[in-house]
Amino acid sequence: MPELPEVETTVRGLEPVLQGKRIASIETRRPDLRRPFPADLRQRMTGARVTALGRRAKYGLIETDRGDTLVFHLGMSGSWRLDPAELGKHDHLLIETEEGRRVALNDPRRFGSVDLVATDRLNEAEPFRGMGPEPLGESFEGSYLKRALAGRTAGIKLLLLDQRIVAGLGNIYVCDALNLAAIAPGRAGGGLSLARLERLAESVKAVLIEAIAAGGSSLRDFVQPNGELGYFSSQWRVYGREGKPCPRCAAPIRRRTEGGRSTFYCAKCQR
DNA sequence: CCGACAACCTGACGGC
DNA sequence: TGCCGTCAGGTTGTCG
Predict the structure, then answer these.
(1) What is the DSSP annotation of A215-231?
(2) Which residue's C-alpha is at the least distance from the C1' of B10?
């Protein structure tokens, strides 16, 4: 489930393998994921040195000394495998360093993507142009939400999933943050008080930080015999827990579908 | 602006 | 054992 915490953890897992290292080879094993791989990927990446790894929203960033940043998205099913013993049919991109370390981007559903963007124009380039603030950044707070949501009648859950409002939240952590903040997912965004939005922003940060910490603590497990680097299991508050007790008030968690996606919430304490 | 829906693609799971 | 329907983290686009 690659949401922001999973991407953050993935990037941290790639760091020891790639940071500061020269790319000996980069190989695509099919022409595309969601989009075609960049035509000049090989030419621009081969021989380049990785100068930084990072994350923006749910995208991972691999920056090189040639002024390029490789931007990857894990879609619904993507993960990186570290030093895979052998390649499987869903290992679509392979990077090998001069030291002989290998990382493979694995993505069965192929909803992910790989793009090459000029580093100095990263924020103006797709897909980052027009994106809202990072949910873990300083500017994401109650007063920002008050401004961004003014006049909006859509449900707060849908609005939090809008990357132009805040960049990097997905279905799982939106459900969990709304539970922690005791806010009903269908509440009109524009009608929430500043006090409740302050609590919401804090709740968003709290669930993300906790999930990243859980991923970090399982990082050592990433380089297991299977070499997989990607998801970690986490203690979700409400997501995927229909019928189980709400962590706030013990009432059974409910599930509702809106916009074709499941929302998990507590009808008793989320108002 | 809004909500609903479909599309992209594969695999896991439950029911029969 | 197998077949078939349903569902899943995200993004992007259309429609009314």
Answers:
(1) HHHTGGGGSSTT-EES-
(2) A109
